[in-house]
Amino acid sequence: MPTIESLLNGAELPDSPSARLDAELLLAHVLGKPRSYLRTWPEREPDAAQCAAFVALLARRSKGEPVAYLLGRQGFWSLELEVAPHTLIPRPDTELLVETALALGPGGPARVLDLGTGSGAIALALACERPAWQVLGVDRVAEAVALAERNRARLGLANARFVESRWFSALAGERFAVIVGNPPYIAADDRHLGEGDVRFEPASALVAGADGLDDIRQIVHEAPEHLEAGGWLLLEHGYDQAAAVRALFAARGFTAVESRRDLGGHQRITLGQWEEDAHAE
Is 29 in the same domain as 126? Predict the structure, then answer.
């Protein structure tokens, strides 16, 4: 039987930028062990079923299927989350949204809304860091809501909950101190939709009209009806959309509008404050 070392050395993933890491993650998953086990016991011989499972996962990865979907999990913030093909894979750049919301939000009790929650990553990170907050995550996809709830239950975060809603459609009369969201923001004809992991992620969570701003327009327009006075709206968007999104915020009447940069130096989120008194007639 092949050893752990020979299985890893023979793993071929020519199109992956992280081939060795991918192989290690997949083999550790099959063995039910941490990656450190592979380095500690390279001479161990997995059984035939484990070898076959590893080869099958390699074949799927070689066709471009994301490692997170193959493993069924992905780390985000300080959390380990279940993921599935009907939700986006949480990405490190989105942690900027969490950091900013934590900095801007109230220090005490508050109601916070996460739009298009997917796996629940943003909502659960906020709930974990701010036990006094009541965090609501919404998604129009019932399977995503169920997945987010499973993550919530496993993490034991009683101050988060999830409901099915197309943006604000199920939230009549509800207001929040902070609204965050990572909505679809890719243009329908963007060539990147046919590349990399994105090929396997749900198009409904990625594409937003001809210029990628359809959902952001709707959210910016409707958010004031659901913000408390002085509340904040924070949205993730494409690396080249910051100026357009700031213009949408400003035109709607938000103040303190600014964009902030992600780990790669791109303006990745835009935020604004809703001063209700300024709009009173």
Answer: no
The average pLDDT across 142-157 equals 96
Question: What letter would DSSP give residue 196?
Answer: G
Query: Are residues 108 and 52 part of one domain?
Result: no
Burial tier of 47 (Cβ tally within 10 Å: 0-12, 13-18, 19+): exposed
Tens-place pLDDT, residues 177-206: 999 999 876 655 555 544 566 555 555 555
pLDDT at 268 over 50: yes
CB 147 within 8 A of CB 202: no
Q: Please determine, for residue 281, whether its predicted confidence score (pLDDT) is greater than 50.
A: no
Q: Are the C-beta atoms of 273 and 105 separated by less than 8 Å?
A: no
pTM passes above 0.85: yes
The gap from C-alpha 258 to its chain's centroid, in whole angstroms, comes to: 22
Measure the CA–CA gap between 22 and 230, rounded to whole angstroms. Answer: 45
Alpha-carbon span 170 to 162, nearest angstrom: 12
Q: 3-state DSSP: the chain helix, strand, coil percent, rounded to 5?
A: 45, 20, 35
- Name the domain boundary from 12, 32, 63: 63
Domain count, the chain: 2
Query: How far apart, in whole angstroms, are the C-alpha atoms of residue 233 and residue 132?
Result: 19
Helix/strand/coil for 16: coil
Helix axes 95-104, 121-129, angle to 10 degrees: 40
Please answer whether residues 182 and 233 qualify as being in contact, where contact means their C-beta atoms are separated by less than 8 angstroms: no
10/53 Cα distance (integer angstroms): 15
Cα–Cα dist 157/77, whole Å: 15
Task: Give the C-alpha separation, 153 to 161, whole Å.
Answer: 10
If you search the block for the tokens 């913030």, which residue do you land on?
77
